[in-house]
Amino acid sequence: MAARALWAGRRGVQRLLASSAASEGREWLHPFSTATQRTAGEDCSSEDPPDELGPSLAERALRLKAVKLEKEVQDLTVRYQRAVADGENIRRRTQRCVEDAKIFGIQSFCKDLVEVADILEKTTECISEETEPGDQKLTLEKIFRGLSLLEAKLKSVFAKHGLEKMTPIGDKYDPHEHELICHVPAGVGVQPGTVALVRQDGYKLHGRTIRLAQVEVAVESQRRL
């Protein structure tokens, strides 16, 4: 009996020591584990920011960029509308100027022609009022003076406005300037293929032919048409 009691006592002491050691081990490990978890959490928080900050900053940047682009679009739209309006105004003014040029482009020429008409009218009145019925010589002299003055004035008006009468006699036939009426035998000193006679004068305006000269062209006798 005494031996059994002693063995039981030993077992109880061993259990008590084991329980005490296990309790102390848990107390030593628990602070270390908590500190380790806290340190790991702090490291994570210091290295990686929360996921909520990233999208918020990106959205804010996108909104600012969208506002800026919208403002630029509005400015460009206003500029485009102004440019279209200015272009339309320029087109209308240009069209009006072209129409005015068509209507009043010969205003200066007409003004000079009026002076020619005045000379012709005065010459006619002078002949009809001052000439005696039987004095034909005086009448012809006045007509000649009036016509000479009229021709001089017309030449002056034509020269002023760049209107030039062509003198193609002796020139080589040119279909761009001459209208062929007929062929005539080449006379002495006349080269075949050249203008021998002018039926109606041609005119150029600032170097451009506005009326062809009606001409007769010299050819060799056997080629006469």
Question: Would you write up a description of this structure?
Answer:
It is a single chain. 65% of the residues lie in helices and 14% in strands. The protein has four helices and six strands; from the N terminus they run ααααββββββ. A three-stranded antiparallel β-sheet has the order 1-4-5. A hairpin with a 2-residue loop joins strand 4 (203-205) and strand 5. The longest helix is centred in the middle third of the chain and has 52 residues, at 53-104. It is elongated, with a radius of gyration of 59 Å. The chain starts with a helix and ends in a 6-residue tail after the last strand.
Shape: elongated
Number of strands: 6
Percent of residues in helices:
55-70%
- The gyration radius over C-alpha positions equals 59 Å
Range of strand content: 5-15%
Helix and strand succession? HHHHEEEEEE
Low-confidence segments, ≥5 residues, pLDDT <50?
27-37, 39-47
Order of the strands making up the biggest sheet: 1-4-5
Structural class, judged by helices and strands?
alpha+beta
Round the mean pLDDT to the nearest integer and report it: 78
Number of helices: 4
Distance between the termini: 175 Å
